Amino acid sequence: MTEKNEQTALLLLGCPQVPVQTSMVLYLAHGLSERGIRPVIAGTTAARKLMEVADPGRHYLDEMNDLDATIDEITEKKRDFDLCFVFIHNDSGIAYAGTMAYISKAWVYALIFGEHAEELAEEIEFPCEIVAAKATHNPMPLKRRLDEVMQWAAVSKR
């Protein structure tokens, strides 16, 4: 946790290949901020650039960092988070979520989307909360599932 007992949430972004990722990151960052939880974005260069363009005034995106550098900080125990939301649309996203479940004290939320969301969800074999929806261009199926989770996401499960 950060100073003053402020809760923090890591939003971990891989390749932004599926269009719903950008809008859902902004939506989640807004929702967390409204609940007094500070969102921190960690992503690939392309994912961060999309976020910067989508929120040029930084209304929702206060802090953005390189994905690998953030994982290194957590591994080295220099930093950690209360919650971790991993955006997943392929196998590498599952690997990132599994890594976070292992190296971080944060409760991990696997946000699985895309055409193969159900199949990807079945591959998860580590402790986390799975939020899956077949969403590629239309964010509403994932938004509805995320809204259900956000009702109780402010309380860490660990």
Description:
The chain has a single domain (3-150), classed as MTH777-like (Rossmann fold), CATH 3.40.50. The chain is 41% helix and 20% strand. The protein has helices spanning 20-34, 45-54, 67-75, 91-103, 117-122, 140-150, and strands spanning 8-13, 38-43, 63-66, 83-88, 107-112, 129-132. Helix 4 (91-103) links the parallel strand 4 (83-88) and strand 5. It comes from Methanoculleus formosensis. It holds the Pfam family DUF1890. This is DUF1890 domain-containing protein.
Q: Secondary structure elements and their pairing?
A:
Layout: E1 8-13, H1 20-34, E2 38-43, H2 45-54, E3 63-66, H3 67-75, E4 83-88, H4 91-103, E5 107-112, H5 117-122, E6 129-132, H6 140-150
Parallel strand pairs: 1-2, 1-4, 2-3, 4-5, 5-6
Q: Which class best fits the helix and strand makeup?
A: alpha/beta
- The Rg value, from CA coordinates, equals 14 Å
Number of domains: 1
CATH architecture title: 3-Layer(aba) Sandwich
In N-to-C order, the SSE pattern is EHEHEHEHEHEH
Organism: Methanoculleus formosensis
Protein name: DUF1890 domain-containing protein
Pfam family, one: DUF1890
Keywords, please?
41% helix; alpha/beta; Rossmann fold; 158 residues; single chain; disordered C terminus; six-stranded parallel beta sheet
Please summarize what this structure is.
By secondary structure, the chain is of the alpha/beta class. It is 41% helix and 20% strand. The protein has one domain: MTH777-like (Rossmann fold, 3-Layer(aba) Sandwich).
